Amino acid sequence: MKKSALILMLLFGFSLVANAKNIEVYPTNWWTGMKTNSIQLLIRSTDGLFASDKISINYPGITVVKTHSFSNQKYIAVDIVIAPETVAGDVTIELNQKEGKQKIKWPLYNRRSGNGTEYAQGVTSSDFIDLIMVDRFSNGDVTNDKVKGLRDQSLNRNEMFDRHGGDLQGVMNNLDYIQGLGVTTLWFTPIMENDMEKRTEHGYAITNHYKIDKRYGDDALYGKLSDQLHKRGMKLIFDAVYNHIGSFHFLELDPPANDWVHRWPTYTQTNFREIPLFDPYGTKSDKKRMSDGWFDKIMPDINQGNPFMANFIIQNCIWHIEKFGIDGIRLDTYTYNDLDFANRCNKAIMDEFPKMTFFGEIMVHGVANQAYFEQNNMDVSFKSNLQSVVDFQALYYGIIPALTEPFGWKEGVSRLYYTLSSDFLSKNPMQKVLLLDNHDEPRFFSVVGENVEKQKMGFQWLLTCRGIPQLYYGSEVLMKGFKNPDGLVRADFPGGWKEDSKNAFTGKGMTDDEKSTQDLVRKLGNFRKNSSALKTGKMMHYVPVDGLYVYFRYDENQTIMCVMNTSNSEKEIDFQKYDERTTGFTSAKNVISEESLNTSNKTTIPAMKMWVLELKK
Fold first, then answer.
1. Does residue 34 register a pLDDT over 50?
2. ∠ CA 479-441-203 to the nearest 5 degrees?
3. Within a 13 Å sphere around the CA of 495, how many CA atoms are in the beta-carbon half?
4. Distance between CA atoms of residues 215 and 196, nearest Å
5. In whole angstroms, what is the distance from residue 235 CA to residue 118 CA?
6. Which SMART domains match (predicted)?
7. pLDDT tens digits for 600-614?
8. Which residues have a catalytic role annotated?
9. Residue 97 pairs with which residues in a beta bridge?
10. Residue 128, SS3?
11. How far apart are CA 146 and CA 143, in angstroms?
12. CB neighbours (10 Å) of residue 59?
């Protein structure tokens, strides 16, 4: 062969690979040894059309089953099967574009070890979750505060709805603090790319499911953070969004076809009413608007009835778990999904990761309404496989009225009692995620009128009631604010920026009230880590009397007595009145103050005070 001809061939081959930068493949990679081995590749050309949907893959163990073309000829979908014996490597895919043939490489990796033991472990009642908005927690790398090419170039900590600069490095820098609170699990609001024009700090308008937002870091940094958590014996939760995408997502700006999101003649927002989904007298039109209406003008509603879009979402969830070693999943805006699709997606994930646990955002009003969307004991036509929910009922109709309303037959702490008593509707109440506040709710400290003792009572309830406790970053140091008009519910954690005068990580500049509340969370959070009764024990509660509510967490090894006085006067405690649980014990040690009480004697608890008592024989 002449030298000149050889050079031309090499150059031509190089051009095939070089042009691959104009081709995107989703999922961006896969793994050998996965149960999910029938994969649908969505291949996108960013600058040219495909001449045909004919592709070839010549890789041992991979079979092309079918290809699909779309009205938008920039896309092809390819169904492949990866045989069990297939080895890892770069899979070469040959495509036919109008400009000629092109070869691209698609990575196939060996899967990570430890499914169910080192990752995908599930999040249970033994855990304590910390919910963090990464942009508002700590700025560990100022070089990524603004990223050239992204639409939102805001960076102003004085504007609550601009970017503030927090990132994954900031979280990693402060893992000692987080773990020191007794926290076992981190949940971040979504950190995938949100290349929107404004309001990108929350993360729920995803524009690329396969990219970590560069303002937070990158794949490697997120993977490193996951590894560090697991080395500490901690876990990581993925905030998945089945329901919508951001309006600047490539599947909205340049969709394969027009039916990948729900289209209406004019903009139609969801009615935010879950009731038509189970209402025996409901209308189809109300149900359709609930499920198919857009959550917001900038959040197109995913058409989960489109099998290609459904595959895209399901595969991305599995990819994200395997790629980053996820342990649990929080599911955003769960009630707005096509529920049959949600069941199918949940099942696909559980088939691949048998110990994986889910909890859905079910922001509704009514215990039965909430139970409908989780695994339940109700005789209804639709049966959800969702294992758990964020327990907004215990928040709205439980701990908030308990600490803000005068006691009555159906007011005050009686409402907490009634709400918890309805747990018979749920398959596993111990999997419910408890909260005092989150990124969408007012700070609890503001809700209770900035009353420090009530905030402390809220935390004592959170860490002793049945279920999985969830802290919202900064509430342990009395961060405050309502949703409107200032948006302070998403304020920066004090000390997360070098210029901060107050530092909650070190205690610098903090008030005595802030320190004492932080100390309470730290002490009770760490006590809970070693408390079998609080982590996995049973619960028993007594009917509240005159504002005094007493409940127990117990197992064969430990008994914890929780006494909540929500009245404005001190109350007598006669331990003998609770003999179903106190018999055989002679003393009680206050977990927070470490004071001991003789359970043979009556005592009094001050007004607006809560005790967590470990009973001793």
1. yes
2. 95
3. 17
4. 13
5. 9
6. Aamy (SM00642)
7. 999 999 999 999 999
8. 332, 361
9. 50, 100
10. coil
11. 7
12. 18
Collect all residues with Cβ–Cβ distance below 8 Å to 414 and sequence separation of at least 6.
407, 408, 544
Can you read off the two tokens belonging to residue 391?
A: 């327990």
| Residue with token string 């290349």 | 195
Cα distances (Å, whole numbers) of residue 354 to 226, 327, 345, 349, 350? 20, 11, 13, 8, 5
| Sheet of strand 75-82, all strands in order from the earlier edge strand to the far edge | 23-26, 38-45, 75-82, 62-69
What Å distances lie between residue 484 and 37, 160, 353, CA to CA?
Answer: 47, 11, 40
Pairwise CA distance, residues 278 & 379, whole Å? 12
Q: Do domains 14-110 and 538-616 have the same CATH topology?
A: yes
The answer to whether the predicted template modeling score (pTM) of the entire model surpasses 0.85 is yes
Output the pLDDT for position 191: 98
What would the two tokens of residue 522 be?
Answer: 């730290």
Residues 6+ apart with CB under 8 A from 532: 555, 557, 558
Q: Which two tokens stand for residue 380?
A: 């209804």
Q: What's the CATH number of domain 14-110, 2.60.40.10, 3.40.640.10, 2.115.10.20, 1.10.760.10?
A: 2.60.40.10
**Token code pair at residue 418:** 């009634």
> How many of the other CB atoms lie within 10 Å of CB of 248?
18
pLDDT single digits (tens) 541-558: 999 999 999 999 999 999
Q: The tokens of 485 are what?
A: 């008009």
CB distance 589 to 612 below 8 Å: no
Q: 129-258+311-530, superfamily in CATH?
A: Glycosidases (3.20.20.80)
Find out whether 102 and 16 touch, Cβ atoms under 8 Å.
Answer: yes
What is the DSSP annotation of 4-46?
Answer: HHHHHHHHHHHHHHHGGGGEEEESS-EEET-S--EEEEEEEES
pLDDT recorded at residue 21:
62
Rounded Cα distance between 525 and 517, Å, is 12
Query: Would you identify the CATH topology of the domain 538-616?
Result: Immunoglobulin-like (2.60.40)
Question: What residues contact residue 215 under an 8 Å CB cut-off, 6+ apart?
Answer: 135, 144, 145, 146, 147, 150, 163, 165, 167
Q: Is 107 helix (H, G, I), strand (E, B) or coil?
A: strand
Tokens (6 digits) for 207: 């524009």
Backbone angles phi, psi at 486, to 5 degrees: -90, -15
Q: Give the residue extent of every domain in the chain.
A: 14-110, 129-258+311-530, 538-616
pLDDT digits 0-9 by tens, 478-517? 999 998 767 899 999 999 999 999 999 999 999 999 999 9
